[in-house]
Design a protein that fits this description.
Elements: H1 15-57, E1 61-62, E2 68-74, E3 77-78, E4 82-85, E5 89-95, E6 104-105, E7 120-125, E8 129-134, E9 142-147
Parallel strand pairs: 1-4, 2-5, 4-9
Antiparallel strand pairs: 2-3, 5-7, 6-8, 8-9
Length: about 150
């Protein structure tokens, strides 16, 4: 049973009982808020840690030791969007989206044409340089191949 914080009791109106219940409810709510805040802080901390790890990993994938590189097209993104490869590497883009995409050089030096879900298109890069490409129907999709 809850004990009121005052020694005065008004039996007719129940004021003491209401006051005691309010104190107990406020205490329970404070504990719930503290637990929720701690859970939120753990979530934010984990998210920041993941973001730092991704930033330390760098924005591009360095695939120098490979002669072939796969770049899936998924969720309207070239994954990864930036790659570094040695000269002579064949890059293969595979569309896993349910819509057609292209892999098109920004200077229109090469173009895959539209290709659908489950279809792949490849190109071998023999000249050093940075090649920027995009998807014609979805121009916000941009990627780069840096050939060393």
């Amino acid at each position: 049973m809850l004990e009121p914080r005052t020694s005065r009791r008004d039996e007719g109106t129940g004021t003491v009982m209401v006051r005691a219940m309010a104190v107990a409810t406020a205490g329970a709510m404070t504990g719930a808020v503290s637990r929720a805040r701690a859970g939120w802080l753990r979530t934010v901390g984990a998210s920041l840690g993941a973001a730092l790890l991704l930033a330390m990993a760098g924005a591009s994938a360095d695939v120098r030791a490979q002669a072939a590189v796969d770049v899936p097209i998924q969720a309207f993104v070239f994954q990864p969007a930036a790659i570094v490869v040695p000269s002579g590497t064949t890059v293969t883009w595979t569309n896993v989206d349910p819509v057609d995409h292209t892999v098109t050089d920004v200077n229109h030096a090469w173009d895959s044409g539209l290709f659908g879900e489950g279809v792949a298109w490849s190109m071998t890069f023999t000249e050093p340089g940075t090649y920027t490409y995009y998807c014609i129907p979805h121009p916000m999709m941009i990627g780069t191949v840096e050939v060393q």
